Amino acid sequence: MLYTLSRSPYACDLAALLRTARPGDDLLLLSDGVIAGLRGSPAARALSASPLALHALENDIAARGLSVHFSPNIAIISYNDFVRLTEKQPQQMAW
Question: Where does the secretion signal sit in this chain (predicted)?
């Protein structure tokens, strides 16, 4: 399953998303969802403790000026990599 988080972790039920995650699932942070990847934040710690493979869109991180504050535990990817994730995980759930 590919989960996409496009809202701030403070405006959604991140705990519910994490309860549904299983090993082998991927999570892509995009739009305001990249806020969940801020280094040292409670959301980033919760994501790092989950079984999810973590990814974030480079353009959305840069657009918000968060590059220097982003967690090194989350892979920063391009739109082409996003397409590869959708090929790898045919099922998707948006948050």
Answer: none
